[in-house]
Input
Amino acid sequence: MYTRWSVILLVFVLFLHACKDRNNTTGHEAATTAPPPSINDLEQKLQTDSPASDSVREFLIERYMEAGNTGKALFHIQHLLQKQPENPAYLFMMADALEKKGDTTQSIHYFEQAIESAGVFSEAELRLAFLYAETSNQKTLVICDNLLKQEEALKMRSDILLIKGLYFGRIGNTEQAVRVYDQIIREDYSYMDAYLEKGLIYYDQKKYQEALNVFKLSTTIKNSFAEGYFWMAKTEEKLLQKEAAINNYKRALALDPSISEAREGLKRLGVL
Output
């Protein structure tokens, strides 16, 4: 199923000096070394390299997360937290892994713990606000409004406003949600997810022409926006504009072959 939500899950990479002990290579030599060690190599190194075990474990967790093995990642994060239960970076890693596992309740708990431990932790606050929005929790607005006052969060302003819009949409206040998305577009016209979420509100309300206008505008602003073409096609299908829908499903697939629903749309329209 093609997801509506394609933004916000910020990457928080934690190597914590894991690369410092790699054979004392120079910058030029490091750039020409072999690819990173495999998971098996890291597991073996973890058993033999006690002084650097935490750094190795952090790197191993990152590799397991990349491989989609959240179970193994959680096992190793637990080891780190047993040694440093108030380390905000490790608490964040636990929250991140639990979110990817689908355990929203526990993920919220660990994000809250990471923020409490760190004091100021904009990335964790943003992730927590997103989960609050997904669960229609009014705390979303408190976090977002606080973030908007922080200088270090200015670079995330559009992301923060988007989460406010998602929250309003979740609680059924679609008029306010649209106002927030319009604000984002005024301030940052190239922020594609604002167009996408605004269009989806109209789509869900069966206001298909209004939705189509928004999706078209998104692809005018960014002609490589695969999601925009996909939702144009979905909307054109609802409006019985078969040829236009076929063309836009094809455009979406050409730009992003992973959009399986575009392929399904073409099958539905008798093309595949």
